[in-house]
Structure formats: C-alpha cells, structure tokens
Amino acid sequence: MRGEYVEISPYSRVVFTWGWENKGSTPRPGASTVEISLIPDGDGTLVRLRHLGLNAEERANHALGWDQFLPGLVAAAEGHAPQD
Q1: DSSP classification of residue 2
Q2: Measured between alpha carbons, how far is 68 from 59 in angstroms, rounded to an integer?
Q3: What is the pTM of this model?
Q4: Residue 35 structural domain
Q5: Cα distance between residue 20 and residue 10, in whole Å
Q6: Cβ neighbours of residue 2 under 8 Å, at least 6 residues apart?
Q7: For the chain, how many structural domains are there in total?
C-alpha cells in the first residue's frame, strides 16, 4: 500500500491518497483518496471516513477492510485492547 498526505488539519481532518503497489491489485497508488474528519460530539468525537475513487468491486472489498480494522481504532482511542 502506498499513499501521500494531501491535507492535514490538526484535530479535525486528514486526507491522503491510497493504492496498492502489488501488480494486478487495485486501486493503484494515487487512484483513490481517503478523507477522515473528526467532529466534536458532546464528550466524544464522531469519525467520518470516506474512501473516494473506488469502483463498485473495490468499494465492496474496501468496505469489508474498513469494517474489520475500524473497531481496533476505536479500541485504541478508548484505551482498550482490540477484541477478536
């Protein structure tokens, strides 16, 4: 996987390109963009993640990946070990 930061707004937003370097894998580096916005919500924070520039198959595959790994991010942010 390879990407480059496009925008960093401390405490509120990160945007970076995303792609696989492996031959035959898609999307290719720079072909898609991930936007992460942090939105204050009472005593917590809402995280909005958008992965743009994917075709239908890539969207489905990446949705599975994000669904698998985002709970670990939540656990780390809350100071808990991820659960399997």
Answers
A1: B
A2: 14
A3: 0.84
A4: 5-77
A5: 26
A6: 19, 20, 21, 29
A7: 1
